[in-house]
Design a protein that fits this description.
By secondary structure, the protein is of the alpha+beta class. The protein has helices at about 5-15, 20-40, 40-50, 55-60, 175-180, 230-235, 250-259, and strands at about 75-80, 85-90, 100-105, 125-130, 135-140, 145-150, 160, 185-190, 195-200, 205-210, 215, 240. It folds into four domains: about 5-40, no CATH class; about 40-100, no CATH class; about 125-180, no CATH class; about 185-240, no CATH class. The protein contains seven helices and twelve strands.
Length: about 260
């Protein structure tokens, strides 16, 4: 005998059950589940996931210690990113302490990791900016190597650019770092909605972005050759993805009114 949902559909097909009533019953139950889910705070969800998957989440931490190595006061906990697009292990003293041990899933595309020079612990001076005279540094952080314009100062975040897509970080020169620090750049506004189309440097190379839509730039294409027209072509292609949480999704009550 087929499962109950299939029997119900068979009854609709045979004319024994009115389909609107069946669908209304489904949405009534589904709406109650949604209402119950809305009453649960995201922190409760984080705690439940932390309890269920703690061995996996914290198993790779040094010495299996959850003490924050940055502020020495906090405890490392599982967190969902602000817009629900990723997950990470961070300090519970945020925003006082912004230490992040590792990310579990992010907005950017991931690719198989390639060995990099992990022996460099101290920042390496590549040179100085020809205009601002600020130092240009090559540094190693939680997400890999990156170049930075200027030194770290209190209440100031220097401009940075990831170089994770470069296999040999020792080959990075001052000119190369300055080129990377130019990004992100706005190519222009999208003709349909006027929102900016941005060329950015992602973890695995360059990408173009329009609102929630991101398209990777082929590695055979130079970033200087990307125009607004070319970016629009990439964004309308098949190799695109959407990030973040869409706005303006219809609520269950609105669907019920239609039924």
């Amino acid at each position: 005998m087929p499962p109950k949902p299939f029997r119900q559909l068979d009854n609709v097909s045979a004319g024994l059950t009115e389909w609107k009533g069946l669908l209304r019953d489904y949405w009534t139950r589904f709406s109650s589940y949604c209402n119950r889910a809305e009453s649960i705070h995201i922190h409760q969800v984080e705690k439940m996931l932390e309890k269920a998957f703690g061995d996996f989440l914290f198993g790779s931490l040094p010495d299996n210690s959850r003490a924050c190595p940055s502020c020495l006061e906090g405890t490392l906990i599982f967190k969902v990113s602000r817009y629900g697009a990723g997950y990470f292990i961070g300090c519970d003293q945020h925003p006082k302490c912004k230490y992040i041990a590792k990310t579990l899933y992010g907005d950017e595309e991931e690719e198989e990791e390639t060995p990099q020079n992990k022996s460099m612990e101290e920042p390496r001076l590549l040179g100085v900016h020809p205009v601002s005279n600020e130092k240009v540094l090559l540094k190693n952080g939680p997400y890999g190597f990156y170049v930075q314009l200027g030194e770290d100062r209190k209440d100031f975040t220097p401009k940075r650019a990831s170089v994770s897509h470069i296999k040999d970080v020792d080959s990075i020169t001052l000119d190369g770092a300055l080129q990377l620090l130019r990004y992100p750049v706005t190519l222009g506004n999208h003709p349909k909605d006027g929102h900016p189309v941005i060329l950015k440097l992602a973890k695995v190379g360059f990408a173009v972005r329009h609102r929630r839509t991101i398209a990777s730039v082929p590695k055979s294409m130079k970033p200087d050759d990307i125009t607004l027209e070319k970016a629009l072509e990439l964004l309308s292609g098949d190799n695109v993805r959407h990030i973040g949480r869409p706005k303006g999704k219809p609520k269950v009550k609105q669907v019920m009114e239609v039924l």
